[in-house]
Amino acid sequence: MFISRSISRLLKNSASVNAFTRQNFCAEALNTATVPTVRTVKDKWISRFQTENIPEADASITNILAHVLKVQCLSDVNDRHQETKLDEAQLAKIDELCECRLARMPIQYIIHEWEFRDLTLKMIPPVFIPRPETEELIELILQQIDAEKELKFLEIGCGTGAISLSILKHVPKASAIALDQSTLACELTLENATQHDLAENLRIFRHKLVDKLPTELESHKFDMIVSNPPYVPSRQLLALEPEIKIYEDLRALDGGPDGLTVVKAILDIAGRHLEPSGVLWLEVDSSHPPLIEKYLEEAVPQLGLKFMSSYKDLFRKERFVEIMKV
After folding, report:
1. What is the DSSP letter of 205?
2. Tens digits of per-residue pLDDT, 131-150?
3. Where are the domains of the chain?
4. Within a 10 A sphere around the Cβ of 115, how many other Cβ atoms?
5. CA quadruple 199, 203, 207, 211: dihedral positive or negative?
6. Over the stretch 14-27, which tens digit does the pLDDT of each residue have?
7. Diameter over CA atoms, the chain
8. CATH assignment of 126-325, given 1.20.85.10, 3.30.70.1150, 3.40.50.10380, 3.40.50.150?
9. Prior bond to 126 cis, omega within 30?
């Protein structure tokens, strides 16, 4: 009788343990099935971005995921991390950054950095974001200079420092002076230069782009001047994408009535401060190259500047101008 009761109790306890184990197993399986992965979160936000008409939906969420996961290569988000599970802190951060993108904030400002050629640059609103076309300008410049020789150059409108720092990195004997009218841009250029150990050969001045060079630089001559100046005609500013007109510094975009106000000021500086055979490189609106050529020939021949050539960007638009001091 005692043995019978013991066996009955044992079977009852065993059944309870089995029921508890099954219940836990089901709960764990359910939790595992509902833990968000990179793939599910990416799909969710692509759909949301597309519904809200956010440009480049896939690229936007991929960059945000790479930033949160601390992944350097964007392709790894899709190739190696699709089934990576995301914890609550990561999900909260992704949601926070995606809400910024829904507000049309540029992805560069959201993740606070961006790749420019072989440099990772810090980005802070409203400092002008370097465009892919400007990488092409750097390639043109590097193709036409001797990287082993000394080079004294001036950048007008440095923004994040993308142009100056790219040249300094690939031309070890170069020295640069960079100007910008924005205090924040000057500070950001210096921070990026320091981050990449390029600050030693760089001097930065806060200065209005349409003015003559600062008094300290009045006697300076340069082998090269380079600029991606404001060149958008004022009347077109309101038609720009929200990412640009809401978040970026419009002073870095507004080129005056015809888009050439700052360009003409830079031509005047080039005429005064380029060494003989020195070169001015400009990134401009695709309608500007023939206007600049005509301006140099007819309006200001006394500057001693010769229009050499214009070059197309990756979109097959005339974007870059080469001018020589004769």
Report:
1. E
2. 999 999 999 999 999 999 99
3. 34-103, 126-325
4. 13
5. negative
6. 444 344 444 544 44
7. 121
8. 3.40.50.150
9. yes
